[in-house]
């Protein structure tokens, strides 16, 4: 591709060299540079791409995109932008021929519920025969093709490449989990969303954002970039979003609620076994929804999904059909069902105080015996939530097993001590090894009990200070059952 074509319409300064040259690929990782590439210097947390300019040139880079001054030889073209993260997003979009323009992109943001809402939307569209793309925490999907992912939202360059693959394979609708990191770090800069959904906002990721206000402002960016927003106004921050949008004269949003008069309202909820049944009303229409994932918070997730799909032209009856068999890996997922156990085992991704509270309250509704929880807290993450989760886990469970959950570089014992500092009851068992913690829960479970294993959900690994090991809780449960 001609460099001048790639730069067309962008605000930049030529510091050195010639723009009338052909370039190969774009990259921001100097280790991946090949001959004829463009190297974009990105400032990260651990390193600064500007420090790797010479390495990139040695590997064959012909163009350097920077925001700081750099010294290079005369035969290297240097292009300076005010912000190279935003430049990477714009260059990536142009390099892949602006694939966003050919997709209906639905963005879902919030502390909890992003994955469940995204899978609900995916199932609704697939139920009417649409080929769908999904970008999120569990994996990326292009139709039935599953692509493993390292983060909720890819870097902008990879994101545009993924959009391109979707377009080439006939995808019309792409659902994205949009993390606060991706909004703050401009990974989704320049992406126009047909619909943006707000689920909720509770404490999380303050190790990155530092303050809750920064966290909110990062999330809010999605709704400034959405053609239509679908907002949960039963959450106080959802109300604030609507108020802030109005201040900017942005009025194309719809609200959903179970407590007040939103545009999309759920009423008359009934829990039958593990199904939740409720009436949904919007735009003068009414339909009875049967959702196979229990919990009031999943009704909220469904309302967000319903609002998005209805906005994009899906009938309420088709939405109902799409929701009746929805399955979300690692979100209130029933494990070991083929064994007909006298107790239930639920695997859930809940790893924040709010998430843990919601899954335990939900499980309590269908627990006939005792509620046994197994949970821990991640290492190298916000420490404030550790005692909070300890208190929630012991207050809402009959028995809580405190264990490890991705301790990373921290001492697992130290993390558990932080959790124990929030506990003022004696209904807990401390078992540092997560496998042994799950084993203990299954050993003590009796008829009618429910075990909730929280924190990892869809994940199939544990991150230790010695590295990452394979750890799939479904396999662990299966192995324990086979041994016994």
From TrEMBL:
Residue ranges constituting the Mur ligase central domain according to the UniProt record: 108-308
Annotated binding of ATP, by residue: 110-116
Pathways involved: Cell wall biogenesis; peptidoglycan biosynthesis
Subcellular location: Cytoplasm
Coiled coil residues, start to end: none
Sequence ranges assigned to domain Mur ligase N-terminal catalytic in this UniProt record: 23-96
Alphabetical UniProt keywords: ATP-binding, Cell cycle, Cell division, Cell shape, Cell wall biogenesis/degradation, Cytoplasm, Ligase, Magnesium, Nucleotide-binding, Peptidoglycan synthesis
Chain residues that bind UDP-N-acetyl-alpha-D-muramoyl-L-alanyl-D-glutamate: 30, 152-153, 179, 187
Record-listed N6-carboxylysine modification sites: 219
Function in brief: Catalyzes the addition of meso-diaminopimelic acid to the nucleotide precursor UDP-N-acetylmuramoyl-L-alanyl-D-glutamate (UMAG) in the biosynthesis of bacterial cell-wall peptidoglycan.
NCBIfam families: murE, PRK00139.1-2, PRK00139.1-4
Protein's recorded name: UDP-N-acetylmuramoyl-L-alanyl-D-glutamate--2,6-diaminopimelate ligase
Organism: Clostridium sardiniense
């Amino acid at each position: 591709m001609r460099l001048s074509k790639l730069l067309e319409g962008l605000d930049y300064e030529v510091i050195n060299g010639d723009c009338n040259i052909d370039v190969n690929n774009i990259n921001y990782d100097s280790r991946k540079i090949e001959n004829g590439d463009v190297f974009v210097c990105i400032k990260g947390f651990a390193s600064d791409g500007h420090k790797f300019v010479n390495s990139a040139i040695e590997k064959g880079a012909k163009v350097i995109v920077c925001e700081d001054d750099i010294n290079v030889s005369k035969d290297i073209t240097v292009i300076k932008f005010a912000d190279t993260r935003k430049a990477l997003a714009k260059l990536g979009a142009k390099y892949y021929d602006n694939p966003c323009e050919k997709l209906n992109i639905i963005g879902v943001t919030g502390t909890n519920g992003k994955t469940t809402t995204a899978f609900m939307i995916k199932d609704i569209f697939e139920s009417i025969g649409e080929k769908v793309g999904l970008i999120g925490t569990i994996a990326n999907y292009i139709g039935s093709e599953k692509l493993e992912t390292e983060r909720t939202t890819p870097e902008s360059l990879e994101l545009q490449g993924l959009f391109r693959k979707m377009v080439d394979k006939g995808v019309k609708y792409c659902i994205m989990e949009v993390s606060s990191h991706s909004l703050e770090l401009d990974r989704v800069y320049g992406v126009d969303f047909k619909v943006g959904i707000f689920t909720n906002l509770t404490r999380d990721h303050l190790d990155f954002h530092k303050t809750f206000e920064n966290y909110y402002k990062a999330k809010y960016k999605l709704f400034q970039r959405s053609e239509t927003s679908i907002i949960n106004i039963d959450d106080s921050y959802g109300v604030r979003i609507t108020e802030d949008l109005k201040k900017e004269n942005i009025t194309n949003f719809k609200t959903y609620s179970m407590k007040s008069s939103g545009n999309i309202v759920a009423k008359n909820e009934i829990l039958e076994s593990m199904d939740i049944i409720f009436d949904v009303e919007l735009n003068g229409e009414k339909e009875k929804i049967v959702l196979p994932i229990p919990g009031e918070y999943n009704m909220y997730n469904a309302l967000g999904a319903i609002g998005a799909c209805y906005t994009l032209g899906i009938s309420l009856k088709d939405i109902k059909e799409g929701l009746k068999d929805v399955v979300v890996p690692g979100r209130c997922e029933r494990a070991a069902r083929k064994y007909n156990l006298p107790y239930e085992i639920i695997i859930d991704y809940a790893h924040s105080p709010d998430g843990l509270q919601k899954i335990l309250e939900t499980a309590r509704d269908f627990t006939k015996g005792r509620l046994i929880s197994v949970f821990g807290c991640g290492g190298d993450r916000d420490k404030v939530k550790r005692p909070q989760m300890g208190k929630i886990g012991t207050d809402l469970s009959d028995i809580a097993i405190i264990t490890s959950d991705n301790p990373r570089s921290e001492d697992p014992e130290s993390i558990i001590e932080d959790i124990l500092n929030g506990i003022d009851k004696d209904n807990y068992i401390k078992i540092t090894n997560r496998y042994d913690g799950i084993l203990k829960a299954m050993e003590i479970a009796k008829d009618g009990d429910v075990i909730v294993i929280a924190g990892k959900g869809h994940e199939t690994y544990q991150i230790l200070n010695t590295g990452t090991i394979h750890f799939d809780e479904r396999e662990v449960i299966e192995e324990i059952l086979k041994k016994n």
